[in-house]
Structure formats: C-alpha cells, structure tokens
Amino acid sequence: MTYTDEQLxxxxxxxxxxxxxxxAATTDKVDEELGHALQEAGVELDAEDVYTLASAIETxxxxxxxxxxxxxxx
Length: 74
Fold this sequence. Notes:
- It is built from four helices and no strands.
- It is an all-alpha fold.
- The protein has one domain (5-72).
C-alpha cells in the first residue's frame, strides 16, 4: 500500500510513542500495541505493515523511521 506524506507523519508519531513505551517487548506485543495506537490515532495501515514496523521497533530498540521501514518492505 502507498501512504501519503501526512499518513507517514502520523504513523511516525505513533511509532515514536509506542517505541518509547514498548521497545523492550516482543514483536507480537509491540504489534498489538502499535495496532491499538494507530487505531486510536485514526491511521489505517495494512496488517503486514504494522507487523513490519513492530519488528523494526523490537530489532532497533525503538529507533525507527516509519517511512524508511515501509519503503524498504516494498
């Protein structure tokens, strides 16, 4: 899926918030929390993209640039 700059900006804010609180958690837990936070923010991502971001958060210990992760997964 292709995302607009506005969507990516919103996703980045959510990723930063989730990463700050859940960077030491498992990918599955981060995926769950990221999904909830995105829903609360009114941002819709494919489930695969949410999991990809969650995995990056866990792997990189919270330091994630959403646009780079989502572009690399294409």
